[in-house]
Amino acid sequence: MQDHPLGLFIIPDEHLHERLATASRLGIPTAHILPPDRHSRSAEGLRSFKQALQDAGVEPTVMFCGFEGESYETIPIVRETVGLVPRETRSARLEKAKRISDVAAALEVPVTALHVGFIPDAYDTREYGEIVETVGALADHCAANDQWLHLETGQETVETLLHFLEDLGRPNVAVNFDPANMILYGTGDPIEAVRQIGDLIRSVHCKDATWSSKPRVEWGEEVPLGEGDVGMENFLRALKDVGYVGPLTIEREIVGEQQLRDIEKGVQLLRELRTNVWGE
Ligand code: MG
Questions:
Q1: Separation of 221 CA from ligand 1 center, angstroms?
Q2: 92 found inside a domain
Q3: Does the predicted TM-score (pTM) go above 0.85?
Q4: pLDDT tens digits for 184-201?
Q5: Which of 192, 197, 259, 260 would you call most buried, defined as having the most Cβ atoms within 10 angstroms of its Cβ?
Q6: Can you spell out the DSSP letters for 159-223?
Q7: Is residue 23 in a domain?
Q8: Distance between CA 53 and CA 3 in Å, rounded?
Q9: Centroid of ligand 1 to alpha carbon of 181 (angstroms)
Q10: Distance from Cα 42 to the centre of ligand 1, integer Å
């Protein structure tokens, strides 16, 4: 695969074929995907999913875990419901994430990824230790499947993320960097963060957002690529400086016609910037 191929975040719901057709039409050769739902995970179901991706000329590079009961409605609700942090659902979700890693393996996707949730920054607490242990168990399961585990940025500061990665101490764990999340959650300057995380960044979301007037309390706003506060050219330049060669995966978290239009504009913008930054 050429360096910095474009990518698209694709959800395999009833609109899967339209999304794949869009990727195909726009010449997008890679995707981050969610797993097909539980009922479509038979050998036959996975074969036809894989075939649909192949027919569209789209190579899945990362599979994301999503869990029932997660809600991104407000920052406090994210804190309570997202990822492997909430204690009540932790062990059940760990098992689900392992099954998703198995689905990724069956589809020959080399990376499983997720939002861990709000990793606590009180490092000497039992809760923090338990979260390290849980994510470590998932990382080991991914390793047995010959996979990487990527943790998506956003809910924690870079300091907490780096501390957590060090405590995990697993060689197959890296970072899916989403610059807009750092702005949406108000956790720090994304460009500076790229430089701090460096070559641990192994996949990215190209997404844009504007800062909230109450960072860390209320959401900023997700906006079309190039219209927010990330500064897409600076973002790509920072990625270049840390030697990033992976896909540039567009994520636009709205639905319908507007999403399509924004994705098309995003593709155009990334192609221009890729030429400016990498000469490709
Ligand atoms: Mg993202």
A1: 14
A2: yes
A3: yes
A4: 999 999 999 999 999 999
A5: 197
A6: HHHHHHHHHH--TTEEEEE-HHHHHHHT---HHHHHHHHGGGEEEEEE-EEE--SSTTTS--EEE
A7: yes
A8: 20
A9: 7
A10: 28
